[in-house]
Amino acid sequence: MAEPPGAAAEDAWGKVDAAYGDNGLDSALFMENARKSSIVSRANSIGSTSASSVPNTDDEDSDYQQESYKESYKDKRRRAHTQAEQKRRDAIKKGYNDLQAIVPTCEQQDFSISSQKLSKAIVLQKTIDYIQFLHKEKKKQEEEVSTLRKDVMALKIMKVNYEQIVKAHQDNPNEGKNQISDEVKFNVFQGIMDSLFQSFNASISVTSFQELSACVFSWIEEHCKPQTLRDVVIGVLHKVKSQLY
């Protein structure tokens, strides 16, 4: 076990006094030198103890720099994530604003919610409804275009037919002189209708609507056959011809 610094100093002074007392030297001078040596050794001991107790400042600086780097990296990642999230939200907001500007039904708000901002769900639903409406309108317009094309084709055919008729009249200018009068045409039509009405009146019963319907269908099947109508028309034409000539 190490002796206390004070005891070591006193022991050193005692040895110095014993060593130099016999030689007749000034003991006070040597005791003063010994005291200085003791003070220096004590100072060195205290300095080494203090140095061992003080932590390494270089290691602390290194650790601090690493912690600062970690914090800075985390802050950068956090800022980048925040910016990306804000950019995404701005894009979504712009998309909804564009939908509200494009879709007419989003502008025509009800009076009950005119003072309130449309929610995203309402904007999406109105957009879906508008798209479905556009699909129906497109289909309707396509059908109209198809019908108009058929009408155009029919008109072209009629135009060709009328051009042929006009050309035929121009090639035969005397053909119109032997045309039949409207009175003769009416007599032919009247003769055909009288014949059909006689058969119709003889075959149809009007006691009830159900019986009338059944009789009409059976009359059409029996008296309106192509061969029957042909015979009626031939008979009327012979009759009109005999009246004219």
Automatic annotation (TrEMBL):
* Localization: Cytoplasm; Nucleus
Q: Name one Pfam family in it.
A: HLH
Q: Where is this region: Disordered?
A: 40-91
Keyword Phosphoprotein in the entry? The reply is: yes
| GO annotation, biological process | positive regulation of transcription by RNA polymerase II
Annotated TM spans: none
Q: May I have one GO cellular component term? A: cytoplasm
Fetch the PROSITE patterns from UniProt: BHLH
Reading the lineage from the top rank, the first entry is Eukaryota
Q: Where do Polar residues bias regions lie?
A: 40-56
Record-level Gene Ontology MF annotations? DNA-binding transcription factor activity, RNA polymerase II-specific; protein dimerization activity; RNA polymerase II cis-regulatory region sequence-specific DNA binding; RNA polymerase II-specific DNA-binding transcription factor binding
The protein's matches in CDD domains, at most eight in alphabetical order, are given as:
bHLHzip_Mlx
Q: Which residues form a coiled coil?
A: 131-158
Q: Which SMART domains match?
A: HLH
SUPFAM superfamilies per the UniProt record, alphabetical: HLH, helix-loop-helix DNA-binding domain
Which InterPro entries does the entry mention? bHLH_dom (IPR011598), HLH_DNA-bd_sf (IPR036638), Max-like/E-box_TFs (IPR052207)
Give the function comment from the record: Transcription regulator. Forms a sequence-specific DNA-binding protein complex with MAD1, MAD4, MNT, WBSCR14 and MLXIP which recognizes the core sequence 5'-CACGTG-3'. The TCFL4-MAD1, TCFL4-MAD4, TCFL4-WBSCR14 complexes are transcriptional repressors. Plays a role in transcriptional activation of glycolytic target genes. Involved in glucose-responsive gene regulation.
Tell me how this protein assembles: Efficient DNA binding requires dimerization with another bHLH protein. Binds DNA as a heterodimer with MAD1, MAD4, MNT, WBSCR14 and MLXIP. Can also bind DNA as a homodimer.
Name by which UniProt lists this protein: Max-like protein X
Underlying gene: LOC117006666
